[in-house]
Description:
The chain contains 7 helices and 20 strands. By secondary structure, the protein is of the alpha+beta class. The protein has a single domain (8-331), classed as 4-Layer Sandwich (Metallo-beta-lactamase, Chain A), CATH 3.60.15.
Amino acid sequence: MFDSSGPASALVPVDEVRITTLVDNVYDGLLEDGPFTTRETFGRAGEAAPQFEGGRTEVGLLGEHGFSSLVAVRRGAAEATLLFDTGLSPSAMITNADRLGTDLHAVEGVVLSHGHFDHTGGLAGLAGRLGRERLPVLAHPEVWTKRRLVVPGREVFELPTLSKTALAGEGFDVIERREPTLLADGRVLITGEVARTTEFERGMPPSHQAWLDGDWRHDPAVIDDQALVVHLRGQGLVVLTGCGHAGVLNIVKQAQRLTGVDRLHALVGGLHLGGRAFEATIDPTVAALAELSPALLAPGHCTGWRAQHALASAFPDAWVPSSSGSVHRLVAA
């Protein structure tokens, strides 16, 4: 699975990509299927509930402020499956996987988009489910950075910091890389550290701080942010982000630059445009994405309601709301 040989431009086109959203901020059991997306409705998972006739009720899936996706790529008869982020809590990803009938033992590796706890919290649950299997975890070397939020009028909130020692103790094989990495026999690309080139994507506000060189400092970049890229044969790039702290256009530009493929077919994941600090970024982001004209746009997690409304209006045929349990299936031309 974790094959880093060859340049990123050697990314192998695939015949099919399936992205299953295991955890997102929202679960909506009434969403309808679309051209690329199927939804998890009620009727698959139930629990005991004596107040109902028959003693059971339907439970749907869990939503929490976090993100996790299961990514399956197929070329011919060969298929590879990896996990991209693990959600906020130790239990949500595992619970949703069980309710979806997903066997996490099929996962061949884990990729962490960055170190924030709402993307790494489910590693504990995954370790409990898999036991001491030596599952590889790919992360940027700065994923262990200690961070905090200092918001005026609120208590200082120090974010839970991921521990490399603890992960190794739970049976994970931690692999740290800044540079782009090819996975799954060249069928999946992890961008590595993303170059910041756009004028309008300026990163996190001053309230986001990191412990650097013995002091708390503004951390706008979240330099460990990275994304997952697949080249769908005849269609273009499929880009999956965790939070998109590097800026979604910076990420797409890096994917294009690394692969030599210009066309963006699908963009899925968090775009981090929520909150007042990012309002000025929404319009130029929408305008830049309009030039790329993706066939599928499924922003979730930290994208924010203002950005969601803007994107839904600008991309009426491509935009779909994200939800735990959504499966985006994309096939080659």
